[in-house]
Amino acid sequence: MASPRLAAAGLSLGIGAPILAAALSASGLASWSSQAAAIAAALIVFALFLKRSAPQPAETPLAAVALIASLIAAARMWGLARFMIDPARSGFSVLWFDPFYIRHNCFSAWYEAARLAIAGGVNIYRSDLYAGWNGTFKLDDFMYPSPALILPRLGFVFSSSFLVLRAAWFAVEAALLVAALYAVARWIGGDEGRRATWLVPAVIAATPILLTLQIGNFQAAVLALSMLAMVAFARNRSIAGGALLGFALFKIFPGVLVFYLLLKRRWRDVIWTSFFAALYVGISVAWLGTAPLIDFVKYQLPRIASGEAWAWLQLDGLQNVVAINHGITGLVLKANLVHAIANIPLAMKVVSLLFSILVAAAAIFAAMRADDDDRLGSAIAWIALLGLAALRSPFVPDAYALLAPVWLWSLVTARLWPQPQKRAFALALWLPLSLVLPFEGPLAVTGNARLAIATLIQVLAISLSVSQLLLQRSEKPTLELIEEPA
User: Fold this and answer.
1) Residue 134 CA to its chain's centroid (Å)
2) Hey, CA dihedral for 327, 329, 335, 336, is it positive or negative?
3) Which residues pair with 171 in a beta bridge?
4) Which of 116, 316, 358, 405 is most buried, with most CB under 10 Å away?
């Protein structure tokens, strides 16, 4: 039976090659030339692994699952790469039957915000500036702290073409996510790490993963950066970890890991993370000026705090959008669809506060129960905390709300696999966690059915994260962990 390392080499043809093809296309190589070059490079990597990979034990049922998932992931990733190289080939997009997702691209907000910041003279957080289109793509509003614009600003050094930078953004984010999935599995090591490696193709094959990469939402990159940072910290590489997590913090929700590190008394890790976050702020000011940062603090941050930035969710005619919102305060808007709520803003504030307390309590519990020798358990805690913290945003569509739960699923399945009676249940969880409800096309559902399905998936994803944090194993009683310094 082939080893996981050999399987990873084989996957380079199906996953690595299309990502490389998109990158080569962004660098200026013609479409077919970029794909041919990527395949050639993947074949070379495959041959090297075939020659050097030592035989390792593998469980036949899991290998079969990995093979099926690999074929699905390869077919879907190659199709996606074709669409990223040439947006006219919408038939290759992940949900090729849904015009909304074909035309939607979150990176358009980053591109437009960077372009506006470079030109200067306007508040890049004004929604009216994003009312138009960039070619066939509807512009998205830019919501992030201004230092995050370092990335698209770097892209403008090489090209000012939106389509070129869109392909490059996809290639970088996809490569980062795949690298993080394998890096975490390798760090876990042993039988559990090997099983996690086998399950990577199933993660890549999931619709939330592929669709998030297609629309260019930064969530996938943030999860990858955060998990790579935690692995670096676990290896006592505080500088590398701080550089990674310091940038991820501009998505805000990875701050839960800083809280976790404080609870674990990892002072050095927290200091380096803070240093790099401040450094990135300085770089953004030097590169883009002070206006974007000032506008975020004075204009956008109050709108985020008050909920004004997402007030559009309460407009009539957006029931299908409200249904797929996994943000925890979105539960209030969902409930309002069933029975009118007198004071929606107050209800949302109460729900947000209660959920914030839950996330903080989960982080405290996870830190107290953490067993550093249980690497799989640590990785499960990190991704579960990230998945929960991400839901504090008022609007988190299922397309990227399910990223962390799918990754968490692979780690939980790696743990449960030796128990035959739990395998079928674990594998069955992949289906609901991989479901994104389209707006149009043959698979679209509307009305109460859409609301019920989306809410059940949301509850399932939250329950998975919470249950895994509560089930964290420890070699010491909780009372002893509280009393004894780390």
Assistant:
1) 24
2) negative
3) none
4) 405
**Helix pair angle (31-52, 17-26), 10° resolution:** 140
Coil, strand or helix at 167: helix
Only one residue has tokens 């990873």, namely 8
**Token pair recorded at residue 336:** 């309002």
Q: In angstroms, what is the C-alpha Rg of the chain?
A: 22
CA distance 17 to 37: 9
Q: Is the pLDDT of residue 473 over 80?
A: no
Write down the pLDDT at residue 66. Answer: 86
pTM of the model: 0.94
Instruction: Give the number of other Cβ atoms within 10 Å of residue 56's Cβ.
Output: 14
Backbone φ and ψ for 53, nearest 5 degrees, come out as: -70, 125
Residue count of the chain, please give it. 486
DSSP for 282-320? Answer: HHHHHHH-SHHHHHIIIIIHHHHHHTGGGGGGGSTT-HH
Helices (H), 120-218: 150-158, 162-188, 190-198, 200-205, 207-215
DSSP state of 202: H
The burial class, CB within 10 Å (0-12 / 13-18 / 19+), for 290 is exposed
User: What is the domain partition of the chain in residue ranges?
Assistant: 1-62+74-92
Residue written as token pair 């500088």: 239
DSSP track, 456-477: HHHHHHHHHHHHHHHT---SS-
C-beta separation of 465 from 408 below 8 A: yes
Question: How many alpha carbons fall within 13 Å on the CB side of residue 273?
Answer: 27
- CB-based contact 97:131 (threshold 8 Å): no
State pLDDT tens for residues 148-202.
999 999 999 999 999 999 999 999 999 999 999 999 999 999 999 999 999 999 9
Long-range pairs for 153-158 at CB < 8 Å and ≥24 separation? 153/114, 153/117, 153/118, 153/284, 153/287, 153/288, 155/114, 156/114, 156/115, 156/118
Pick the closest to residue 400 from 229, 169, 237, 207 (CA basis). Answer: 207
3 state SS for 323-350: HCECCCCHHHHHHHHHCCCCCHHHHHHH
Q: Which two tokens stand for residue 207?
A: 């619709």
**428-431 contacts, C-beta under 8 A, 24 or more apart:** 429/460, 429/464, 430/202, 430/206, 430/406
**Are the C-beta atoms of 460 and 433 separated by less than 8 Å?**
yes
The answer to whether 149 touches 169, Cβ cutoff 8 Å, is no
Q: How far is CA 413 from CA 178, 195, 422, 428, 468, in A?
A: 18, 8, 9, 10, 12
E strand or H helix at 421: helix 420-428
